[in-house]
Records
---
Amino acid sequence: MTKILVVDDDPQILQTLQINLRARKYDVTAAATGTVALEQAEVWRPDLVVLDLGLPDIDGVDVIHGLRGWTAVPIVVLSGRAGSRDKVAALDAGADDYVTKPFGVDELLARIRAATRRRAGGEETGRTARIGRYTIDLSDKVVHGTEPDVPDLRLTPIEWRLMEILLRHPGKLITQHQLLEQIWGPNFTSHTHYLRQYMAQLRHKLEPDPTHPRHLLTELGMGYRFAP
Protein backbone atom coordinates (compact mmCIF):
# COMPACT_ATOMS: atom_id res chain seq x y z
CA MET A 1 0.00 0.00 0.00
CA THR A 2 1.35 3.42 -0.98
CA LYS A 3 2.17 5.57 2.05
CA ILE A 4 1.42 9.29 1.82
CA LEU A 5 2.43 11.95 4.33
CA VAL A 6 0.11 14.98 4.19
CA VAL A 7 1.52 18.20 5.66
CA ASP A 8 -0.86 21.13 6.22
CA ASP A 9 -1.83 23.32 9.17
CA ASP A 10 -5.47 23.52 8.06
CA PRO A 11 -7.44 20.80 9.92
CA GLN A 12 -10.22 20.81 7.32
CA ILE A 13 -7.82 20.19 4.45
CA LEU A 14 -6.06 17.46 6.41
CA GLN A 15 -9.38 15.74 7.07
CA THR A 16 -10.53 16.08 3.45
CA LEU A 17 -7.31 14.65 2.08
CA GLN A 18 -7.17 11.80 4.57
CA ILE A 19 -10.74 10.75 3.76
CA ASN A 20 -10.22 10.91 -0.02
CA LEU A 21 -6.84 9.20 -0.01
CA ARG A 22 -7.89 6.41 2.34
CA ALA A 23 -10.99 5.83 0.21
CA ARG A 24 -8.59 5.10 -2.63
CA LYS A 25 -6.58 2.62 -0.56
CA TYR A 26 -3.63 4.87 0.32
CA ASP A 27 -2.03 4.61 3.75
CA VAL A 28 -2.08 8.17 5.13
CA THR A 29 -0.54 10.01 8.05
CA ALA A 30 -0.68 13.75 8.70
CA ALA A 31 1.47 16.53 10.13
CA ALA A 32 0.48 20.12 10.93
CA THR A 33 4.02 21.56 11.18
CA GLY A 34 7.25 21.30 9.27
CA THR A 35 9.13 19.96 12.28
CA VAL A 36 6.70 17.10 12.78
CA ALA A 37 6.68 16.42 9.03
CA LEU A 38 10.46 15.99 8.91
CA GLU A 39 10.39 13.72 11.96
CA GLN A 40 7.57 11.59 10.55
CA ALA A 41 9.24 11.34 7.15
CA GLU A 42 12.40 9.98 8.75
CA VAL A 43 10.58 7.44 10.91
CA TRP A 44 7.66 6.45 8.67
CA ARG A 45 9.42 6.67 5.27
CA PRO A 46 6.45 7.66 3.09
CA ASP A 47 6.25 6.91 -0.62
CA LEU A 48 5.01 10.45 -1.35
CA VAL A 49 4.61 13.77 0.49
CA VAL A 50 1.80 16.29 -0.06
CA LEU A 51 3.15 19.55 1.35
CA ASP A 52 1.74 22.99 2.12
CA LEU A 53 4.26 25.85 2.02
CA GLY A 54 2.64 28.13 4.61
CA LEU A 55 3.43 26.18 7.76
CA PRO A 56 3.47 27.80 11.21
CA ASP A 57 7.05 26.91 12.17
CA ILE A 58 9.16 26.18 9.07
CA ASP A 59 8.58 27.46 5.56
CA GLY A 60 7.58 24.65 3.22
CA VAL A 61 10.54 25.32 0.92
CA ASP A 62 12.86 24.66 3.87
CA VAL A 63 11.01 21.41 4.50
CA ILE A 64 11.69 20.43 0.89
CA HIS A 65 15.39 21.19 1.36
CA GLY A 66 15.36 19.13 4.55
CA LEU A 67 13.81 16.15 2.80
CA ARG A 68 16.05 16.41 -0.23
CA GLY A 69 19.08 16.19 2.03
CA TRP A 70 18.48 12.45 2.40
CA THR A 71 15.53 11.25 0.28
CA ALA A 72 14.22 11.40 -3.28
CA VAL A 73 10.61 10.81 -2.17
CA PRO A 74 8.16 12.54 -4.57
CA ILE A 75 6.85 15.83 -3.18
CA VAL A 76 3.62 17.38 -4.45
CA VAL A 77 3.21 20.92 -3.15
CA LEU A 78 -0.34 21.98 -2.28
CA SER A 79 -0.30 25.69 -1.49
CA GLY A 80 -2.29 28.90 -1.53
CA ARG A 81 0.76 30.74 -2.82
CA ALA A 82 -0.13 31.33 -6.45
CA GLY A 83 2.80 33.53 -7.44
CA SER A 84 5.25 32.09 -9.95
CA ARG A 85 8.21 33.01 -7.71
CA ASP A 86 6.91 30.76 -4.90
CA LYS A 87 6.19 27.95 -7.32
CA VAL A 88 9.62 28.13 -8.93
CA ALA A 89 11.33 28.27 -5.52
CA ALA A 90 9.54 25.10 -4.43
CA LEU A 91 10.26 23.28 -7.69
CA ASP A 92 13.89 24.35 -7.75
CA ALA A 93 14.23 23.14 -4.14
CA GLY A 94 13.21 19.69 -5.31
CA ALA A 95 9.40 19.47 -5.40
CA ASP A 96 8.01 17.27 -8.16
CA ASP A 97 4.78 19.14 -8.80
CA TYR A 98 2.72 22.12 -7.61
CA VAL A 99 -1.03 22.40 -7.12
CA THR A 100 -2.58 25.74 -6.13
CA LYS A 101 -5.36 26.14 -3.55
CA PRO A 102 -8.29 26.13 -3.90
CA PHE A 103 -7.83 22.81 -5.61
CA GLY A 104 -9.87 20.05 -7.15
CA VAL A 105 -9.43 16.70 -5.44
CA ASP A 106 -9.46 14.89 -8.80
CA GLU A 107 -6.59 17.03 -10.09
CA LEU A 108 -4.54 16.46 -6.95
CA LEU A 109 -5.16 12.72 -7.12
CA ALA A 110 -4.04 12.69 -10.75
CA ARG A 111 -0.80 14.48 -9.82
CA ILE A 112 -0.26 11.98 -6.99
CA ARG A 113 -0.78 9.04 -9.35
CA ALA A 114 1.66 10.51 -11.87
CA ALA A 115 4.31 11.09 -9.21
CA THR A 116 3.96 7.58 -7.76
CA ARG A 117 4.16 6.06 -11.25
CA ARG A 118 7.43 7.91 -11.86
CA ARG A 119 8.79 6.60 -8.57
CA ALA A 120 7.68 3.04 -9.33
CA GLY A 121 9.35 3.15 -12.72
CA GLY A 122 12.44 4.99 -11.56
CA GLU A 123 12.82 8.76 -11.83
CA GLU A 124 14.28 8.49 -15.29
CA THR A 125 11.91 6.40 -17.36
CA GLY A 126 11.30 5.57 -21.00
CA ARG A 127 13.83 5.45 -23.80
CA THR A 128 11.12 6.01 -26.42
CA ALA A 129 8.12 8.30 -26.56
CA ARG A 130 5.33 9.03 -29.00
CA ILE A 131 4.44 12.59 -29.98
CA GLY A 132 1.90 13.02 -32.75
CA ARG A 133 3.00 11.01 -35.76
CA TYR A 134 6.53 10.47 -34.50
CA THR A 135 8.35 8.06 -32.23
CA ILE A 136 11.36 9.51 -30.44
CA ASP A 137 14.17 7.08 -29.59
CA LEU A 138 16.45 8.63 -26.97
CA SER A 139 18.97 5.78 -27.11
CA ASP A 140 19.70 5.98 -30.83
CA LYS A 141 18.93 9.70 -31.16
CA VAL A 142 16.43 9.22 -33.97
CA VAL A 143 12.90 10.49 -34.62
CA HIS A 144 10.92 8.06 -36.76
CA GLY A 145 7.74 8.81 -38.63
CA THR A 146 5.05 6.31 -37.68
CA GLU A 147 3.28 6.37 -41.05
CA PRO A 148 4.61 5.76 -44.59
CA ASP A 149 4.08 9.37 -45.66
CA VAL A 150 5.80 10.81 -42.55
CA PRO A 151 9.57 11.16 -43.01
CA ASP A 152 12.05 10.82 -40.17
CA LEU A 153 13.10 14.05 -38.49
CA ARG A 154 16.42 15.54 -37.51
CA LEU A 155 16.81 17.43 -34.24
CA THR A 156 19.65 19.75 -33.31
CA PRO A 157 21.93 18.81 -30.36
CA ILE A 158 20.19 21.35 -28.10
CA GLU A 159 16.76 20.11 -29.17
CA TRP A 160 17.86 16.59 -28.29
CA ARG A 161 19.10 17.67 -24.86
CA LEU A 162 15.84 19.46 -24.13
CA MET A 163 13.80 16.46 -25.25
CA GLU A 164 15.90 14.08 -23.18
CA ILE A 165 15.28 15.99 -19.97
CA LEU A 166 11.54 16.29 -20.53
CA LEU A 167 10.91 12.79 -21.88
CA ARG A 168 12.90 11.04 -19.15
CA HIS A 169 10.64 12.70 -16.56
CA PRO A 170 7.15 12.27 -18.07
CA GLY A 171 4.47 14.31 -16.34
CA LYS A 172 6.96 16.14 -14.14
CA LEU A 173 7.17 19.92 -14.23
CA ILE A 174 10.75 20.98 -14.98
CA THR A 175 11.51 24.62 -14.16
CA GLN A 176 13.05 27.07 -16.58
CA HIS A 177 15.99 27.46 -14.19
CA GLN A 178 16.65 23.71 -14.16
CA LEU A 179 16.50 23.41 -17.95
CA LEU A 180 18.70 26.42 -18.61
CA GLU A 181 21.29 25.31 -16.07
CA GLN A 182 21.44 21.75 -17.36
CA ILE A 183 21.58 22.67 -21.04
CA TRP A 184 23.49 25.97 -21.19
CA GLY A 185 25.09 26.22 -17.74
CA PRO A 186 24.69 28.28 -14.55
CA ASN A 187 25.51 31.57 -16.27
CA PHE A 188 22.43 31.33 -18.50
CA THR A 189 19.61 30.79 -16.01
CA SER A 190 17.99 34.13 -16.86
CA HIS A 191 17.93 33.50 -20.62
CA THR A 192 14.37 32.22 -20.75
CA HIS A 193 14.00 33.32 -24.37
CA TYR A 194 16.30 30.42 -25.32
CA LEU A 195 13.71 27.98 -24.04
CA ARG A 196 10.82 29.74 -25.75
CA GLN A 197 12.69 29.59 -29.06
CA TYR A 198 13.63 25.92 -28.86
CA MET A 199 10.28 24.79 -27.52
CA ALA A 200 8.59 26.59 -30.40
CA GLN A 201 10.90 24.78 -32.84
CA LEU A 202 10.16 21.39 -31.27
CA ARG A 203 6.42 21.95 -31.31
CA HIS A 204 6.57 23.01 -34.95
CA LYS A 205 8.43 19.81 -35.80
CA LEU A 206 6.55 17.32 -33.61
CA GLU A 207 3.12 18.50 -32.49
CA PRO A 208 0.18 17.97 -34.89
CA ASP A 209 -1.04 21.47 -33.97
CA PRO A 210 1.88 23.55 -32.66
CA THR A 211 -0.45 26.36 -31.54
CA HIS A 212 -2.35 23.93 -29.29
CA PRO A 213 0.31 21.46 -28.09
CA ARG A 214 -0.80 18.24 -26.41
CA HIS A 215 2.56 16.88 -25.29
CA LEU A 216 5.13 19.69 -24.93
CA LEU A 217 3.35 21.89 -22.43
CA THR A 218 4.20 25.28 -20.93
CA GLU A 219 3.44 26.02 -17.28
CA LEU A 220 3.30 29.81 -17.43
CA GLY A 221 6.03 31.49 -15.41
CA MET A 222 7.39 28.17 -14.15
CA GLY A 223 8.66 25.76 -16.78
CA TYR A 224 7.72 22.90 -19.07
CA ARG A 225 6.20 19.46 -18.88
CA PHE A 226 6.04 16.45 -21.21
CA ALA A 227 2.56 14.92 -21.21
CA PRO A 228 2.66 11.38 -22.67
---
Amino acid sequence: MTQPRVGRRAFLTGAALAGAASAVDAQTPPSPAVPSASPPAAKPAKAAPVGYTFLKPAEAAFVEALAAHMIPADELTADGVALGVPVYIDRALAGGWGKGDRLYRQGPWPQGTPNQGYQLPLTPAELFRAGVRQANAYCRTTFGRAFDRLAADRKEAFLLALSRGQAAFGAGPPAGAFFDLIYQLVMEGFFADPIYGGNRDKASWAMIGFPGVLANNARNAEAYRDGRRYSAKPVSIADMS
Protein backbone atom coordinates (compact mmCIF):
# COMPACT_ATOMS: atom_id res chain seq x y z
CA MET A 1 0.00 0.00 0.00
CA THR A 2 1.16 3.52 -0.68
CA GLN A 3 0.44 4.84 2.78
CA PRO A 4 2.10 2.01 4.74
CA ARG A 5 4.94 1.90 2.20
CA VAL A 6 5.65 5.61 2.31
CA GLY A 7 5.03 5.74 6.02
CA ARG A 8 7.27 2.81 6.80
CA ARG A 9 10.46 4.87 6.36
CA ALA A 10 9.42 7.30 9.08
CA PHE A 11 7.91 4.45 11.09
CA LEU A 12 11.12 2.44 10.93
CA THR A 13 13.20 5.20 12.48
CA GLY A 14 10.66 5.68 15.25
CA ALA A 15 10.36 1.94 15.80
CA ALA A 16 14.11 1.59 16.18
CA LEU A 17 14.32 4.39 18.75
CA ALA A 18 11.25 3.24 20.69
CA GLY A 19 12.43 -0.36 20.72
CA ALA A 20 15.86 0.60 21.93
CA ALA A 21 14.48 2.82 24.68
CA SER A 22 12.12 0.14 25.94
CA ALA A 23 15.01 -2.28 26.27
CA VAL A 24 16.62 -0.26 29.05
CA ASP A 25 16.24 -2.03 32.41
CA ALA A 26 14.54 0.43 34.72
CA GLN A 27 16.26 -1.20 37.71
CA THR A 28 19.78 -0.73 36.32
CA PRO A 29 21.55 2.63 36.75
CA PRO A 30 22.86 4.25 33.57
CA SER A 31 26.16 2.76 32.44
CA PRO A 32 28.85 4.24 30.22
CA ALA A 33 28.83 3.35 26.56
CA VAL A 34 29.93 -0.17 25.90
CA PRO A 35 32.14 -0.55 22.86
CA SER A 36 30.46 -2.38 20.06
CA ALA A 37 31.93 -5.84 20.38
CA SER A 38 32.23 -8.06 17.36
CA PRO A 39 29.10 -10.23 17.37
CA PRO A 40 29.32 -13.93 16.63
CA ALA A 41 29.44 -14.72 12.96
CA ALA A 42 25.92 -14.84 11.56
CA LYS A 43 24.80 -18.27 10.51
CA PRO A 44 23.52 -18.65 6.96
CA ALA A 45 19.77 -18.24 6.69
CA LYS A 46 17.97 -21.53 6.51
CA ALA A 47 15.87 -22.16 3.46
CA ALA A 48 12.15 -21.65 3.93
CA PRO A 49 10.16 -24.88 4.31
CA VAL A 50 8.57 -26.23 1.18
CA GLY A 51 4.85 -25.47 1.15
CA TYR A 52 2.64 -24.01 3.86
CA THR A 53 1.17 -25.58 6.98
CA PHE A 54 -2.01 -23.53 7.29
CA LEU A 55 -2.55 -21.57 4.10
CA LYS A 56 -4.68 -23.03 1.35
CA PRO A 57 -3.75 -22.17 -2.26
CA ALA A 58 -6.12 -19.20 -2.59
CA GLU A 59 -5.03 -17.89 0.83
CA ALA A 60 -1.36 -18.32 -0.04
CA ALA A 61 -1.90 -16.35 -3.25
CA PHE A 62 -3.62 -13.59 -1.27
CA VAL A 63 -0.87 -13.42 1.36
CA GLU A 64 1.95 -13.42 -1.17
CA ALA A 65 0.29 -10.65 -3.18
CA LEU A 66 -0.34 -8.69 0.01
CA ALA A 67 3.24 -9.04 1.28
CA ALA A 68 4.77 -8.08 -2.06
CA HIS A 69 2.48 -5.05 -2.35
CA MET A 70 2.86 -3.73 1.20
CA ILE A 71 6.63 -4.37 1.23
CA PRO A 72 7.81 -3.81 -2.34
CA ALA A 73 11.40 -4.40 -3.34
CA ASP A 74 13.51 -1.25 -3.28
CA GLU A 75 17.09 -0.16 -2.71
CA LEU A 76 16.82 -1.13 0.97
CA THR A 77 15.24 -4.59 1.00
CA ALA A 78 13.80 -7.33 -1.17
CA ASP A 79 10.01 -7.63 -1.30
CA GLY A 80 7.90 -9.16 1.45
CA VAL A 81 7.69 -12.58 -0.19
CA ALA A 82 11.46 -12.88 -0.60
CA LEU A 83 11.83 -11.80 3.04
CA GLY A 84 9.65 -14.68 4.22
CA VAL A 85 6.63 -12.70 5.43
CA PRO A 86 4.14 -15.31 4.12
CA VAL A 87 6.09 -18.03 5.95
CA TYR A 88 5.80 -16.06 9.19
CA ILE A 89 2.06 -15.58 8.66
CA ASP A 90 1.52 -19.25 7.89
CA ARG A 91 3.35 -20.34 11.05
CA ALA A 92 1.53 -17.79 13.22
CA LEU A 93 -1.89 -18.88 12.00
CA ALA A 94 -1.04 -22.58 12.31
CA GLY A 95 0.22 -22.25 15.88
CA GLY A 96 -1.32 -21.58 19.26
CA TRP A 97 -1.80 -17.87 18.59
CA GLY A 98 -3.76 -18.56 15.41
CA LYS A 99 -5.86 -21.15 17.22
CA GLY A 100 -6.76 -18.65 19.94
CA ASP A 101 -5.21 -20.69 22.73
CA ARG A 102 -5.11 -17.66 25.04
CA LEU A 103 -8.29 -15.90 23.90
CA TYR A 104 -11.40 -15.67 26.05
CA ARG A 105 -14.00 -17.44 23.94
CA GLN A 106 -17.14 -17.90 26.06
CA GLY A 107 -19.06 -14.77 25.04
CA PRO A 108 -21.32 -12.90 25.04
CA TRP A 109 -20.33 -11.29 21.74
CA PRO A 110 -21.92 -7.83 21.44
CA GLN A 111 -20.26 -5.25 19.22
CA GLY A 112 -17.64 -3.48 21.32
CA THR A 113 -16.15 -0.02 21.23
CA PRO A 114 -12.64 0.52 19.79
CA ASN A 115 -11.07 0.87 23.24
CA GLN A 116 -12.39 -2.55 24.27
CA GLY A 117 -10.08 -4.38 21.88
CA TYR A 118 -10.85 -7.58 20.02
CA GLN A 119 -14.49 -8.61 20.50
CA LEU A 120 -15.13 -11.34 17.91
CA PRO A 121 -15.88 -15.01 18.65
CA LEU A 122 -13.40 -16.02 15.92
CA THR A 123 -9.83 -17.16 16.47
CA PRO A 124 -7.23 -15.24 14.47
CA ALA A 125 -7.02 -18.15 12.04
CA GLU A 126 -10.80 -18.23 11.60
CA LEU A 127 -10.91 -14.47 11.12
CA PHE A 128 -8.16 -14.67 8.54
CA ARG A 129 -9.75 -17.52 6.58
CA ALA A 130 -13.18 -15.90 6.48
CA GLY A 131 -11.65 -12.50 5.71
CA VAL A 132 -9.66 -13.71 2.71
CA ARG A 133 -12.78 -15.33 1.30
CA GLN A 134 -14.78 -12.12 1.70
CA ALA A 135 -11.93 -9.93 0.44
CA ASN A 136 -11.64 -11.94 -2.76
CA ALA A 137 -15.43 -11.85 -3.19
CA TYR A 138 -15.38 -8.06 -2.79
CA CYS A 139 -12.54 -7.71 -5.31
CA ARG A 140 -14.32 -9.92 -7.85
CA THR A 141 -17.50 -7.87 -7.51
CA THR A 142 -15.71 -4.52 -7.61
CA PHE A 143 -12.78 -5.16 -9.94
CA GLY A 144 -13.65 -8.40 -11.75
CA ARG A 145 -10.99 -10.68 -10.26
CA ALA A 146 -9.47 -11.94 -7.00
CA PHE A 147 -7.06 -9.74 -5.06
CA ASP A 148 -3.88 -11.54 -6.13
CA ARG A 149 -4.76 -11.03 -9.81
CA LEU A 150 -5.38 -7.30 -9.55
CA ALA A 151 -3.05 -4.68 -10.97
CA ALA A 152 -1.03 -2.75 -8.37
CA ASP A 153 -3.26 0.33 -8.49
CA ARG A 154 -6.36 -1.75 -7.82
CA LYS A 155 -4.69 -3.64 -4.99
CA GLU A 156 -3.87 -0.24 -3.57
CA ALA A 157 -7.44 1.02 -3.99
CA PHE A 158 -8.85 -2.03 -2.24
CA LEU A 159 -6.46 -1.93 0.71
CA LEU A 160 -6.94 1.80 1.21
CA ALA A 161 -10.71 1.37 1.14
CA LEU A 162 -10.40 -1.50 3.62
CA SER A 163 -8.20 0.51 5.97
CA ARG A 164 -10.52 3.53 5.87
CA GLY A 165 -13.70 1.58 6.50
CA GLN A 166 -14.95 2.26 2.97
CA ALA A 167 -15.06 -1.40 1.88
CA ALA A 168 -17.74 -3.49 3.56
CA PHE A 169 -18.01 -7.26 3.38
CA GLY A 170 -21.45 -8.59 2.56
CA ALA A 171 -21.09 -11.43 5.05
CA GLY A 172 -18.57 -12.77 7.51
CA PRO A 173 -16.28 -10.76 9.79
CA PRO A 174 -16.06 -6.95 9.89
CA ALA A 175 -13.77 -5.68 7.13
CA GLY A 176 -11.95 -3.39 9.56
CA ALA A 177 -11.04 -6.24 11.91
CA PHE A 178 -9.68 -8.22 8.97
CA PHE A 179 -7.52 -5.31 7.81
CA ASP A 180 -6.15 -4.83 11.32
CA LEU A 181 -5.20 -8.52 11.41
CA ILE A 182 -3.44 -8.66 8.04
CA TYR A 183 -1.59 -5.38 8.63
CA GLN A 184 -0.39 -6.63 12.02
CA LEU A 185 0.78 -9.93 10.55
CA VAL A 186 2.67 -8.32 7.67
CA MET A 187 4.46 -5.89 10.00
CA GLU A 188 5.32 -8.67 12.45
CA GLY A 189 6.64 -10.84 9.63
CA PHE A 190 8.84 -7.98 8.46
CA PHE A 191 10.31 -7.04 11.86
CA ALA A 192 10.25 -10.22 14.00
CA ASP A 193 13.31 -12.33 14.70
CA PRO A 194 14.10 -14.49 11.64
CA ILE A 195 13.69 -17.63 13.75
CA TYR A 196 9.91 -17.19 13.25
CA GLY A 197 10.12 -17.34 9.46
CA GLY A 198 10.13 -13.72 8.31
CA ASN A 199 12.74 -10.94 8.21
CA ARG A 200 14.98 -13.27 6.24
CA ASP A 201 18.69 -12.51 6.61
CA LYS A 202 17.70 -9.85 9.19
CA ALA A 203 17.11 -7.45 6.31
CA SER A 204 14.68 -5.15 8.12
CA TRP A 205 16.95 -4.96 11.17
CA ALA A 206 19.90 -4.00 8.99
CA MET A 207 17.76 -1.37 7.29
CA ILE A 208 16.81 0.41 10.54
CA GLY A 209 20.07 -0.25 12.37
CA PHE A 210 18.57 -2.54 15.01
CA PRO A 211 21.37 -4.65 16.52
CA GLY A 212 19.21 -7.61 17.55
CA VAL A 213 19.46 -9.58 20.78
CA LEU A 214 22.94 -8.69 22.03
CA ALA A 215 22.96 -8.36 25.81
CA ASN A 216 24.59 -4.91 25.82
CA ASN A 217 21.76 -3.30 23.85
CA ALA A 218 20.06 -1.99 27.01
CA ARG A 219 23.10 -0.12 28.22
CA ASN A 220 23.85 1.27 24.79
CA ALA A 221 20.25 2.42 24.38
CA GLU A 222 20.83 4.62 27.43
CA ALA A 223 24.34 5.70 26.48
CA TYR A 224 23.43 6.67 22.92
CA ARG A 225 20.33 8.65 23.86
CA ASP A 226 22.09 11.82 22.75
CA GLY A 227 21.43 11.01 19.11
CA ARG A 228 24.74 9.42 18.14
CA ARG A 229 24.37 6.55 15.70
CA TYR A 230 24.97 3.13 17.21
CA SER A 231 26.12 0.65 14.60
CA ALA A 232 26.21 -3.09 15.09
CA LYS A 233 25.72 -6.10 12.89
CA PRO A 234 22.26 -7.56 13.71
CA VAL A 235 22.32 -10.75 15.79
CA SER A 236 19.28 -13.04 15.92
CA ILE A 237 18.19 -15.73 18.36
CA ALA A 238 19.61 -18.41 16.06
CA ASP A 239 23.00 -16.68 16.00
CA MET A 240 23.19 -16.92 19.80
CA SER A 241 22.33 -20.63 19.99
